[in-house]
Amino acid sequence: MDLLSYSTLMLVVDMAATMNKAEILETFSIDPAEFSIDERIYFDEFYAHGKGMAIHTVGQNLIAATRGRNGAQAAMQYLKRFAKEFESDIEGDSSGSFSFTFGSMKE
Hints:
The protein is mainly alpha-helical. It has one domain (about 5-100). It has four helices and two strands, in the order ααααββ. A hairpin with a 5-residue loop joins β1 and β2. α1 (about 5-15) packs parallel to α3. The protein is elongated, with a radius of gyration of 16 Å.
């Protein structure tokens, strides 16, 4: 791999929790058109792993976060920002409540 080293891929895992693919590629000044087939596969898999771990962490900590002051609001803002990348449905109302359905793909 010419563009991606193992250490860079491990950073991709960490960065996937708060950044989308385009933001990560921009951080490293990488043009995805220059990826080899293997690099594209590795990047996508490490990104998906990082995103999945972020979803898991948020889900596990959601109840604990709601116990702190404004914790629920911060957790909801995070989920709201990344809901499209998490491939979920977001349903909300004027009261500010939201429900998330992970795994479905709503057009």
